[in-house]
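Hi there, hope your week has been kind to you so far. Thanks so much in advance, here it is.
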Amino acid sequence: MKKLFICTAITGVLLSCGPSRFVDPLKRGEQAFSGSLGGPIINVPGIASIPIPFTSLTYGKGLTDNTTLYGSWFSTAAIFGTFQFELGATHRLWKDEENTRGLSITPAFNIGTDKFEWNTKIWPQLDMNYYWKYNWEHQTQDELLNHVSKVPNMLYTGIGSWYELAGKRAHDLPQTTRVIPMLQVGHDLNWKSWTFSTELKILAPFTSNENVVTDYKSILGRYGATGLYLGLTKRF
């Protein structure tokens, strides 16, 4: 299991990306800490098909009401010798007058360094998400009638992509894949200052998952990998 995990952490770093960050940006000056758990689903011989239990820790702060800056550290990858960070910003492009629907974009950079040979790579990333906020049954009738709730739950869906800058891949072979697309759908269950998030990703949907080191599982069969992520955020 450890050998498999190390191999995945090093060679599968593109598929170990985290969930979407701050789809609905924080308010100006608002801060948040979050932790996430999950990754692509793989077949572990003799055990089961499970999401890789990668963890990441994220801090974000609202620069304006429409823009949130954030940084993430992939804590599990560090244990196995890969120091990986994500630096980015989420910007709201549009929202309706009731602030129930919106569109946001998240440019980011992922930086990874292994401690064995101290090789460093940078992968730009770009996500775009459409979200819809809705009222949850724990709200009282008065709150619903007077529209006083400020913490509705949220559904979102979007697309994303990682960009490979290196000209060579493993074993000094030419790099043939420059863009790695992703599709995601997620849900935020909100309380006054806490959020529980779930997200399902389809990673690299046009790339064959056959004849690779790790046995990735995908809802698309022979293509890509399916990722599952859980997260908990505290806003203050």
The chain has one domain: 2-235.
